[in-house]
Amino acid sequence: MASVVTAQNRAEKGKGPARRLRQNGLIPAVVYGGKTEPTHLAVDPAVLLKAIETPHKFNTLLTLKTDGGEKHVLFKDYTVDPVTRRLLHADFLEVKLDQPVKVAVPVVTTGRAQGQADGGILSIAAHEIVLEALPGKIPVRIEVDVTALKIGGSIHVADLKAPEGCKFKFATNYVVAFVAVPEKEEVVAPVAAVPGAEGAAAAPGAAPAKGAEAKGGDKGKK
User: Fold this and answer.
1) CA-CA distances (angstroms) from residue 46 to 5, 41, 86, 161?
2) pLDDT score at 10
């Protein structure tokens, strides 16, 4: 079931009207998509953020209730204040429940790679995978089992099976996860000091050897 967000139609655009909206506890929003012109709305940012407190996060299917009726949308983009981190603006993509939509879904690895047990380092190259699915069938995550991955091995997007009702969308068969070869630490062999070696440098802070003359001492004294 879609989360419901009540929105108000707004006719005024620009920085001035947007500033007045924020002073009244609302933010400007725009709905794109469909066969109509973009719709300009005003929404309560607190209500909006509450509506996407779901496992789907930004892929949560929303129902915008306006004076002109209801729209099914996805939270497409947003702007936040760089200092306060408060939501300043929101963009929505209008969707049809019977038409697939393209979204980015987070990647989650499962299992422990064999290469990790052998000293390798597991790296995630793609933290999201773009796929196509019906708005109500968007998966929460894409699970990638890395158990069989050895050192130097990798998993490409074409190696994965898309969730039921979904299609992965990619132009190149990119790497999703791999196990890197551990870097070899350079071992510097200690240089052994030769006992009694003339001119050997003393360790920092070490006391002069017994019987050694201090620099500028009694040299030349008879």
Assistant:
1) 10, 15, 10, 37
2) 83
d(Cα 176, Cα 66) in Å, to the nearest integer?
A: 41
- Return the DSSP state at 157: G
Task: Return the SS3 of 129.
Answer: strand
| Prediction pTM value | 0.73
Query: What does the chain come to in residues?
Result: 222
Model confidence pLDDT, tens digit, residues 44-98: 999 999 999 999 999 999 999 988 889 999 998 999 989 998 899 999 999 999 9
Burial class (CB in 10 A: 0-12, 13-18, 19+), 154: middle
155-191 tens-digit pLDDT: 999 999 999 999 999 999 999 999 998 876 555 556 6
E-strand ranges in the chain read 3-9, 27-32, 39-43, 61-66, 69-80, 87-94, 101-110, 121-124, 128-133, 142-145, 154-156, 167-168, 175-180
